[in-house]
Structures are given as C-alpha cells and as structure tokens.
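Quick start: what a row looks like.
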Amino acid sequence: MGFPETFKALSDPVRRNILVLLKNGRLSAGEIASNFDMTGATVSYHLSQLKKAGLIFETKYKNYIYYELNISVFEEIMLWFTQFKGDESHEGKGE
C-alpha cells in the first residue's frame, strides 16, 4: 500500500461511503450496490479502486464475492496521522 493510492481512493465520497458501510462487517457487491443509485459497473469500479489502494479485500464464497475492510491499512494511516498531533506538554505555552 502506498499513501498516494490510499488518499486518492479516499478522495471520492462514494468510496468513503462504501467504507462506512463496511465498518459493520463484510458485504457482497450487491448489498453494497443497493445503497447507491448507480450502475453495477460503477460500483464495481469504486470497489476496484478501494481494493487497489489496499483499503478493502475480497473473499469468495460460493457464487458471491464479499468485501471487508483491511483494518491493518487503516491502522497504518492512523499511525501516520498521529505524528501531527503535537506534543501536548507544549500546548498553550507559545512554544
């Protein structure tokens, strides 16, 4: 996973909505698509972009493909963001 691909994937509101849907557990492509007013091909494109960025992964079961969040990538992103938190001991001291 590279940050450019990750942030590009996160820049689209549809893809962010898909990630929110997946926070409660795995869903099939059809279950995801039922939440949007767009073609199956468009939903498939968004899923492929999220997969390419490493934000989700797919598993196949019988005739269905299920999508799940790749939590380790989210943890890596959050860890990267924490470097901008700053040192709380210097807050409000003008330093």
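That is the whole record. The helical segments are 3-10, 13-22, 29-33, 40-52, 71-82. The radius of gyration is 17 Å.
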